[in-house]
Amino acid sequence: MRVFVTGASGHIGSAVVEELTGAGHEVLGLARSDASAAVVSALGGEVRRGDFADTAALRDAAREADAVVHLAFDHATMTAGDFAGAAATDLGVVRTLGDALAGTGKALLGVGMTPTGDPATDAVIAANPRSAVSRALAAYTERDVRVVHVAIPPVTHSARDTTGFLPTLIGIARARGVSGYLGEGANRWPAAHVQDVARLYRLAVE
Predict the structure, then answer these.
(1) Cα–Cα distance for residue pair 1/67, rounded to 1 Å
(2) Other CB atoms within 10 A of residue 11 CB
């Protein structure tokens, strides 16, 4: 299969590209910089230059592929404190990709959760600005797109994990000599190794 992957040079995206190419699939990886392009090439993927604003590039790459794995996110805007703005950008990307695949029966894999049926849990999910992206993604099932939501754990770890939530906590602990925790320290977070997450994406594509 030919798979278009956004966020192909990131921590999770690079693992997904590696998993897909290792299984014999052709990967078309979105790259916004020379450094990202080098990562995609090194993993055996074909580079497609573009960014979130380049809707034509996103649309054309999606139409060329048998499936799309959307992992890119506007981390710069989120880091600047505008999480809602980053989610709005992501919503535009999902709509571009979904519109390109509409009527084809092809797969569009995104990050997110669908309603669970538990009111308390669903209220927490709906409070996250990214929930609008998940709802938009789910709506494409009515337009002949095979939609797959993947709820990526907040702790997705590996040796290549150098930025993001967990490395930030580790950096703070190293700098201060103390690892902080809440209350009795009994709270638990979902976690997974990045290679397992990448394998899940590959199985979902197949």
Answers:
(1) 8
(2) 19
pLDDT 10s digits, 145-166: 999 999 998 888 888 777 777 8
Residue pLDDT, tens place only, 58-73: 999 999 999 999 999 8
3-state secondary structure the chain: CEEEEECCCCHHHHHHHHHHHHCCCEEEEEECCHHHHHHHHHCCCEEEECCCCCHHHHHHHHHHCCEEEECCCCHHHHHCCCHHHHHHHHHHHHHHHHHHHCCCCCEEEEECCCCCCCHHHHHHHHHCCCHHHHHHHHHHHHHCCEEEEECCCCEEECCCCCCCHHHHHHHHHHHHCCCCCCCCCCCCCCEEEHHHHHHHHHHHHC
| Distance between CA atoms of residues 93 and 136, nearest Å | 11
Show the tokens assigned to 202. Answer: 């590959």
